[in-house]
Amino acid sequence: MEIRIGIQNVAREISFQTDMSKDDVTAKVRAAVNDKATLELTDDKGGTIIVPAGVLGYVEIGDATARRVGFIAG
Fold this sequence. Notes:
Blueprint: E1 2-7, E2 14-17, H1 22-35, E3 38-42, E4 48-52, E5 56-61
Antiparallel strand pairs: 1-2, 1-5, 3-4
């Protein structure tokens, strides 16, 4: 699943893949925002992304669809 995190006053977004479910990511984002704590997520390579909830602009949770590679004859 692809996650994109926008940070306030920062032009670039954080983008990564995760093995977490959409419900798990949503629950962690809501808990971090409600508790004014840090948002801590794990990417699919075992890395950890930590963002203070107070600077979150948005969190976009994408689908777990595979990317297509190649050309379509037609």
